[in-house]
Amino acid sequence: MGTHLYFSTQIGTQKPVTIVNNGNSCPFCDVDGLENIIAREDSIILLKNKYSTLKNTLQTVIIESDDCDSELSTYKKDHLYKVIHFAIKNWLELELRKDFKSVILFKNHGPLSGGTIRHSHMQIVGLEQVDYKENIQLECFEGATIYKDKNVEFNISSKPKMGFYEFNVVLHDMTAINNMADCIQTAADYILNHFHYKCESYNLFFYHINGIISCKIIPRFVTSPLYIGYSIPQVTDDIEQVAEKLKKFHQQKHKID
Ligand SMILES: [Zn+2]
């Protein structure tokens, strides 16, 4: 079992960068120029990543819409649901192929997210030699409740994986993907527009462990040195208060009683 992914520097240096405004044209807006399209639903396109930097993997990209300026936090409900359904469906299909030790689904948004292209997208990557599940403790999905019904749980980690604020959405029933999508959008909107820290970047990470799908929504800042150097995560002392704020925000945003 592998513990590391091998990054090709040669391909990495060829990758276009549009996440900072540098006058580079956006490759995802040039729909006619896209190659190796795998699946498509309206403006949502799954294709092979042209710059596959990771060895022993299959790297794919989901372009979420044909609007370069749109963002998951502002999608109308029908488009939000379509994107999350499309992403989860194609992710699980790749898992079924059994070519991979594990398959990851994630999203980078903003300058500190690790992404290079600004146009809203997600990535599905099949890992031939690494099982991401080995590194995940299930307790990192538990925490202060924001919303809960019999199908979906939305909380802030009390034992975060990396540290500070980690929002989790745990899906107990596959028929409730729309509810999951609402919770993910609440977290993204809250992070970008209503957080008590100024934050322009976040990641989504999806996990499929013991038959349950979970999503972490993580605001990104400069990473804590204690985590980088010692793998010690930190948790803040106000997660209950932040959960209360989010509870109200989520109810208002999605008109939940
Ligand atoms: Zn674009």
Automatic annotation (TrEMBL):
Residue stretches making up the DUF4931 domain: 7-130, 134-248
Gene3D superfamilies (UniProt xref): HIT-like
Pfam families xrefs: DUF4931_C (PF20956), DUF4931_N (PF16285)
InterPro entries in the cross-refs: DUF4931, DUF4931_C, GalT_short, HIT-like_sf
Protein's recorded name: DUF4931 domain-containing protein
